[in-house]
């Protein structure tokens, strides 16, 4: 096994083409392919008409097998000789294979994640093509959530002959957080050795990474270490108030580790945190020989995350994470959520005084992260690796699956790196340690040292393996030392207080004791008392980083004709506030009243308050009061 580990090559991060804002000579560079698709059952050929995004779990009860195919005809605008065409899938659950007019162009394995495939050769000169996506939901032995089909949107990008195919933004600070440099790592596609060229293998393609195969062709990206003469990029950075903060034009010359790196000084940086979600917008214009070819833009936040022994700091301020676990679920559409529903989720969690969400047990839609960036919520971004060696096969020790483990993170990193809300990479849920998880954890530490890693169950990690940055505990007892590195349900513990302890599943909402709940509704009130006591203990315990209630939202299968309703959320599947919601809002309040006293004779009231904000002084808070007919602020 050690020999296999030493021979393992460093996995590459896939290139994800960013949404183009403008492209030279192209009227509509981004065409959404959502809407009417046909699904053909691979077993008996039966057909259904659906509207993508669509959760195929809805059809399984109606007889759809676990192997099926999506089909639709795509009408195409005229594509010029120098233009490029790229398909972008924002999430296909199941092993996927893509054909364009009968030509196989891509394969992909991981659920919930974004990937793209160039199809220029297949569409050039055509007015329409047939797009087919075959999905296999039964062959995955690594991820138990790899089912549901095309859950997120599908796009066709029409791009210039040279285009941006990766853009990553990293804020770099000096020690006092006064001086900031925004590092931009950018890559382009479409140029090779001074001429546009095709790069083909004997089979018409090449293997890009484990999890995705791109066929039959692509442009080379660079033709060696030097880029083409005359390729430039203009960076404009806009501050949260919309004013231009920086402007820099530079020639793109030498790639380092596959990227052009540009350092942009930011004067008077405005920092991002969950209580002050201040976002910058970075606009990049790409030039070739003086001609502007493309404009892309990304939003990002300037913040620094660091761990000091068993404490976690954001921008030099210690943080405590008060949160909940969130599934993506809709009673009407399963795990294919609308933007409106995602916006509702974020608004409700903010209203409940949550500053942290764990995306159990798979990566969320990217729009959820965009909303967390904008509204201010810290996110634990969880890979779709759950219950490994518990209810799924023992792949954590299988060298044949190592690249697949890597690919779960490289694809998440490619999509989610620029989101300031993401502060923790969760490598797995309730799984047993092994060499593949060790290699994955080491790789994440090398690739992104700006964020923390977490693994559940940490007590199963071998001594010779590298530890994650955060210790995970599920369902600890409320009255114990919550900064202690305990096993799940408080069975045993590990020595030392050298890392933050995150209770990333705790205070499970009462839902299984149904007879008791029907007989005595006050059981729910008692649960609210429990969240108050538990959170007080976390707040007052050094090293106890925070907790995520199980769960944020109820779970259901009524969308596919079932009758199951798991009422374990603080809001129900229709996004209505449950009694537990109000108890969490009170228990998680960032201002706690420690003592209140009414002095009627003096016409005064005495309040002793504790500030439980992480980044906000009470001088920034307005207090309003009312007593009888009197009121004030």
Keywords:
alpha+beta; 16% helix; 34% strand; 8-stranded parallel barrel; 633 residues
Short description:
By secondary structure, the protein is of the alpha+beta class. It has ten helices and 39 strands. Helix 4 runs parallel beside helix 5.
What does it look like?
The strands form ten sheets. The protein has an eight-stranded antiparallel beta sheet with strand order 4-3-5-11-8-9-17-16, with no helix packed on it. A hairpin with a 2-residue loop joins strand 38 and strand 39 (630-632). By secondary structure, it is of the alpha+beta class. Residues 192-228 have low confidence and may be disordered. The radius of gyration is 26 Å and the shape is globular. The chain is 16% helix and 34% strand.
């Amino acid at each position: 096994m050690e020999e296999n580990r030493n021979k393992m090559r460093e996995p590459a991060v896939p290139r994800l083409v960013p949404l183009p804002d403008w492209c030279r000579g192209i009227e509509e560079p981004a065409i959404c392919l959502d809407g009417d698709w046909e699904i053909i059952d691979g077993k008996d050929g039966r057909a259904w008409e659906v509207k993508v995004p669509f959760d195929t779990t809805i059809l399984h009860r109606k007889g759809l097998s676990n192997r099926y195919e999506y089909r639709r005809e795509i009408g195409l605008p005229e594509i010029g000789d120098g233009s490029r065409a790229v398909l972008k899938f924002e999430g296909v659950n199941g092993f996927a294979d893509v054909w364009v007019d009968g030509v196989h162009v891509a394969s992909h394995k991981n659920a919930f994640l974004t990937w793209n495939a160039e199809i220029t050769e297949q569409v050039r000169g055509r007015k329409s093509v047939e797009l087919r996506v075959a999905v296999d939901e039964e062959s995955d032995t690594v991820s138990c959530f790899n089912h549901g089909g095309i859950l997120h949107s599908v796009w066709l990008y029409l791009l210039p002959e040279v285009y941006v195919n990766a853009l990553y933004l990293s804020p770099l600070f000096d020690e006092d957080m006064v001086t900031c440099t925004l590092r931009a790592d950018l890559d382009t596609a479409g140029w090779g050795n001074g001429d546009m060229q095709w790069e083909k293998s004997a089979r018409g393609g090449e293997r890009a990474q484990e999890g995705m195969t791109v066929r039959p062709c692509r442009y080379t990206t660079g033709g060696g270490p030097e880029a083409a003469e005359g390729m430039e990029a203009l960076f404009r950075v806009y501050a949260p108030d919309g004013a231009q903060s920086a402007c820099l034009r530079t020639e793109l010359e030498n790639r380092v580790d596959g990227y052009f790196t540009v350092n942009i000084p930011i004067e008077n940086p405005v920092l991002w945190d969950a209580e002050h979600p201040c976002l910058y917008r970075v606009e990049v214009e790409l030039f070739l020989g003086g001609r502007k070819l493309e404009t892309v833009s990304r939003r990002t936040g300037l913040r620094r995350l660091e761990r000091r022994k068993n404490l976690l700091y954001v921008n030099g301020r210690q943080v405590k994470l008060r949160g909940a676990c969130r599934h993506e679920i809709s009673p009407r559409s399963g795990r294919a959520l609308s933007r409106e529903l995602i916006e509702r989720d974020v608004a409700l969690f903010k209203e409940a005084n949550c500053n942290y969400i764990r995306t159990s047990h798979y990566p969320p839609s990217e729009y959820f992260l965009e909303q967390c960036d904008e509204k201010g919520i810290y996110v634990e971004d969880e890979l779709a690796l759950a219950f490994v060696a518990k209810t799924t096969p023992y792949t954590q020790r299988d060298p044949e699956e190592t690249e697949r483990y890597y690919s779960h993170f490289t694809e998440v990193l490619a999509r989610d790196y620029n989101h300031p809300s993401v502060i923790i990479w969760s490598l797995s849920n309730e799984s047993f340690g092994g060499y593949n998880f060790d290699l994955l954890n080491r790789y994440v530490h090398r690739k992104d040292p700006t964020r923390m890693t977490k693994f559940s169950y940490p007590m199963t990690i071998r001594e010779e393996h590298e530890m994650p940055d955060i210790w995970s505990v599920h369902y600890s007892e409320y009255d114990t030392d919550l900064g202690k590195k305990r096993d799940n349900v408080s069975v045993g513990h590990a020595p030392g207080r050298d890392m933050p302890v995150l209770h990333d599943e705790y205070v499970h909402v009462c839902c299984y004791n149904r007879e008791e709940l029907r007989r005595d509704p006050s059981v729910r009130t008692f649960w609210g008392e429990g969240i108050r006591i538990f959170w007080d203990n976390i707040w007052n315990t050094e090293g106890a980083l925070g907790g995520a209630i199980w769960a944020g939202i109820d779970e259901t299968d009524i969308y596919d004709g079932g009758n199951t309703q798991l009422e374990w959320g603080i809001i129900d599947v229709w996004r209505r506030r449950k009694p537990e919601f109000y108890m969490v809002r009170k228990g998680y309040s960032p201002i706690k009243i420690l003592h209140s006293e009414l002095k009627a004779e003096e016409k005064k009231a005495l309040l002793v308050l504790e500030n439980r904000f992480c980044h906000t002084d009470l001088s920034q808070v307005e207090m309003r009061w009312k007593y009888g007919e009197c009121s004030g602020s």
